[in-house]
Amino acid sequence: MLKRRRKTIEQIEFEVDTRQEHIDEGKCRLAHRCMEKLAIAQALAKLFPDQTTHVRINAGHIWFNADGWRWIANTPRLASRALIDFDHKRPVKPHRYKVTAQRTTKILPNPRKRQDQINTARHRRIAAGVPDKNYTAQSLRKRIIGFR
């Protein structure tokens, strides 16, 4: 049986200007200090000045939180090429591109019971000697694999 739905998709478009200061401040192979992440975070800070935004990026997609919602966008080709070159420690020039993001789901705070479950599991992992997840060469490979 075929089911059809009509849904309004909300999008925002903004310009990102990756300047030399982002390139100098960024760290190769560190997703939380990537030059593109720094530039996108700065662009979002101008759009949403009263909020903190959580930005993640790889060569395929950009994810961020803003205005109480989660957003996703495809990484423009110029940015993904620069990201790959930056992670391979090749020289990168300042560049500018537009990002068109689509709104996905509403951000709801965790109830206190859920936060207690998360904390209990974290304490168990620490007691068992399981290390925290960190950014490794293998996860870097996943970040850029298939994008050339």
List the helices and strands and how they pair.
Layout: E1 11-18, H1 20-25, H2 35-47, E2 55-57, E3 61-66, E4 69-74, H3 77-87, E5 95-106, H4 112-128, H5 137-144
Antiparallel strand pairs: 1-5, 2-3, 3-4, 4-5
Tell me about this structure.
The chain has helices spanning about 20-25, 35-45, 75-85, 110-130, 135-145; strands at about 10-20, 55, 60-65, 70-75, 95-105. It is an alpha+beta fold. The chain has a domain at about 10-110. A hairpin with a 3-residue loop joins strand 2 and strand 3 (about 60-65). The termini are far apart. The model has no long low-confidence stretch (mean pLDDT about 90).
Structural class: alpha+beta
Describe the strand arrangement of the main beta sheet, using strand numbers: 1-5-4-3-2
Strand tally is 5
Helix content: 25-40%
H/E element sequence: EHHEEEHEHH
Low-confidence stretches: none
Total of DSSP H or I helical runs spanning 4+ residues: 5
Rg of Cα set: 18 Å
For the termini, the CA-CA separation is 41 Å
**Shape, principal axes of CA atoms:** globular
Main β-sheet: number of strands, strand sense, barrel status?
A: 5 strands, antiparallel
- Residues in β-strands, percent: 15-25%
Mean pLDDT: 88
